[in-house]
């Protein structure tokens, strides 16, 4: 996230995570819906037990996730106000991931990460430099960490939960 602008030995300005993620979004734009479709297909192959937690019409979920990704990538590392907005969004997202019981687990966040990064790598191919990949990892870890922290603040006694069947 924080960069010192120029670093000895590099000789040029080091791009911020915000710049790197903005570029990823530009590359992803023409194929965003296709990427989300691939993502859920692969996620349910890897973890079939998750399917029933999602709405039957997965197209709606694909759209929601794509707009969340665009939103989160746009706010990440984009200054204090943007980070404050991001943190508020992530607190909300985290709480919404306790609507089912047990809530989303660390292992599931890791599975989502593996599948998502697999799809991004496949779709963006050689365009993704190590710098872009590192920015993606930092962003994902931040997002997942904040969501999990928000999940942990929701009391177990809250009513509006669906018990998992598997
Ligand atoms: C960083 C990772 C994740 C992001 C950014 C993310 C984002 C989202 C978004 C934007 C939605 C739709 C709006 C909402 O309900 O808040 C959603 C719904 C959902 N997510 Fe995630 N999610 C992540 C990880 C996970 C994980 C690990 C699980 C594992 C169980 C999961 C399960 C679900 C389910 C079941 C729904 C649908 C809930 C419903 O409609 O009742 N998500 N997610």
Strand order of the largest sheet: 1-2
Q: Which range best describes the helical content: under 10%, 10-25%, 25-40%, 40-55%, 55-70% or over 70%? A: 55-70%
Strand content: under 5%
Low-confidence parts: none
Please describe the biggest sheet, giving its number of strands, its sense, and whether it closes into a barrel. 2 strands, parallel
Compute the number of strand runs. 2
The best one-word shape is globular
Tell me the Rg in angstroms: 17 Å
Order of helices and strands: HHHHEHHE
Count structural domains.
Answer: 1
**Distance between the amino and carboxyl termini:** 38 Å
Summing up helix and strand content along with how strands pair, one would put the structural category as mainly alpha
Q: For the record, what is the CATH homologous superfamily label?
A: Globins
Named CATH architecture: Orthogonal Bundle
CATH top level class name: Mainly Alpha
- From the 3D structure, determine the CATH topology: Globin-like
Average pLDDT confidence is 91
Question: What's the multimeric state?
Answer: single chain
Small-molecule components bound? protoporphyrin IX containing FE
Tally of alpha and pi helices: 6
